Amino acid sequence: MLKANPEKIRALVTEIFVRKDVPAEDAAVIADALLDANLTGRASHGVLRVVAYVDRLEAGGGKAHPDIRVIRESDTTAVIDGDNGLGMVAAKKACMLAREKAEKSGISCVVVKNTNHYGAAAYWTEMMSQEDMITFSCCNVAPLVAPPGGKDVALGTNPLCVYVPSASHGPMCLDIATSTVAQGKLFDYQLRHHELGVGWAVDVNGIPTTDPDKARFLTPFGAHKGYGIACMIEVMSALLAGGGFGKELNDMYEDIDKPNNLSFCFIAVKIDRFRPVDEFKRDVDRFIDYLHSIPAAEGQRIFFPGEIEIINREKAKADGLLLPEDLVEQLTGIATRLGVENVEEYFRM
Question: What does each C-alpha distance from 308 to 42, 95, 160, 170 come to in angstroms?
């Protein structure tokens, strides 16, 4: 592992996308979202995704200059066509529109179709909330998970995230995949040369494996429970937006010359339409205090959803960001090929 300065990594990732003809403002959004995933410990959705994003741009599977537009709209809702651009660009437009509508109407729902991977959902729910809203996001993903009893994959890892501000503890934030682990965790473990957890994945023959290099498909968490939630996420994102679902989606890594064809959903709820924000946030604090008061088993600690990520972010900002050496080599190779000068300087504290 290499310890790096987060701001330098942000600058490097931004420069990489600018050199792939992505507008500077959009490149900065992508870099910030990816870096935030690393800072919070969600390395599976962090800068290791740069390689895939660049590959898709170069192969024609994603657009550097998409015509992202609202195609249907009401006071509280909107449908956005992402025009096969990088997902984070469409995601920012959608979550800010959702926030704007919720400011006026109290609650909103904005969906996006025809786009690409948007990184960690938590980044967008935090952006929407700005500490005075409860926010939700979900998206569909190309099939990686077999339904219970199935002989083939049917649905993606289909993540969801809920963000709730508090008065003093930091936000409660549940950001989970509906598979046992996210696909990006397999990639992260490959880079770290770590063995997978038991039950996380199966190989091409459907045999359970803990070898990250042999893992091909993922398992749904809680069997029928994860499968059922994944189905409903397809409804809330793809079917509501009129986007593709299931095997109509193209694999992010294998079908890099084809549109990913993903869909997103963003929901924002204005807290003060229900009760004063300060009162609500104080009650969230009381709820968190209650969770912390539960006796923990020996050697254990009770965390509220999102607390570990808060701790990770503070530590990474203070001590530096740890990146696998294999990932540093990948980023160095891409940056050098794109003509970025003095690449090694970006990896120095």
Answer: 10, 24, 18, 11
